[in-house]
Amino acid sequence: MEIDQVETFLAVATYGGFHRAAEALRVSQPAVSARIRALENSLGVTLFTRGPANLSLSPAGKALRPHAEQLLRTVALARQAVHELQPSAAGALRIAAALSICTYLLPDVIKEYQTANPKVMVTVRSGNSLQVLKMVVDGDVDIGLARSLNHPQVETMTLRDDPLILVGHPLHPAVRKRRVRLEEVESWPLIFYDRGSSDWTLSQGLFRRAGLLPNVVLEVETIEASKRMIERKLGVGFLPQIAVTHELRQGKLVAIEIVNAEPLRRNLDAIHPRHRPLSREAQAFLHLLRTAADSALFLTEKTAKLSRRRGRHRA
């Protein structure tokens, strides 16, 4: 059993096919087939079964998967342990992050990091989740920050939950109560942003699955533009919790709970390459990021409870 065979096995399991796994690993499809065949021969089992649309794990493949994931983690830790023995001077830290994370989480974290590490040159690039993943896999950055990212060549660390929540101005005519049914929200003036993005798909899908047609009064490009429109009582909208923490705490916006619909949940993840050990600068940044995410999560939960209490009080 070889490391590249294990990595390829996880890629096929993640993407459900040899072609997509080959694209993710940037090797040819015959190379993927050869690695899987060699792994199956060495174990004496069949790891995949072919379905009508894609491949699925066989019972042996399902048994192997958690051990394969642990094996790659162990290899990454071994590389890290050896790398840490090498002397290093303060250098550079390269980060890629989704735009909303750049806007609402990173500024305070980077300020604190640079105060503690004044000699480290920090650069930040932004993009959507797939662009962030590509920059990490290509080696263009040391750490990526985005939502719900998994890839066989990266280690994923979930920092916190960052759901989309329905918010509105407390004085908007539609916002009379804080707990409503989705059927009520359907007729409200709704503001959506970034058509085609995962946020747009999630919030639109909430209505589509219920057979409802949302009353879209505005579509804008960015989260910040949507928030400003909502603050001016032009409508209500679904925004990432991380983007409205301060407005909820200050009472500029209020959260509205939809009692008969599932929460729109997403993870905020940090990723880094399995094949390249993290520098001390990157390790220090990840530690600080984890602490900041935990603090922000506590703050948003506290803010959400306060918002709900205000809503019950006003009702």
Can you offer a commentary on this structure?
It is a single chain. The protein has 315 residues and is of the alpha/beta class. Strands 4-3-5-13-6 form a 5-stranded mixed β-sheet, sandwiched between helices. The chain has a 4-stranded mixed β-sheet with strand order 8-12-7-11. A two-stranded antiparallel ribbon has the order 1-2. The chain contains 12 helices and 13 strands. The longest helix is centred in the last third of the chain and has 35 residues, at 280-314. It has helices at 3-15, 18-25, 29-43, 59-83, 99-104, 106-116, 129-138, 182-185, 198-209, 223-231, 241-250, 280-314; strands at 48-50, 55-57, 92-97, 121-126, 143-147, 154-161, 164-168, 179-180, 190-193, 216-220, 237-240, 254-258, 267-273. The relative contact order is 0.14. It folds into 3 domains: 3-83, Winged helix-like DNA-binding domain superfamily/Winged helix DNA-binding domain (Arc Repressor Mutant, subunit A, Orthogonal Bundle); 92-159 and 267-301, D-Maltodextrin-Binding Protein, domain 2 (3-Layer(aba) Sandwich); 164-265, 3-Layer(aba) Sandwich (D-Maltodextrin-Binding Protein, domain 2), CATH 3.40.190. Helix 1 packs across helix 3 (29-43) and helix 1 crosses helix 4 (59-83).
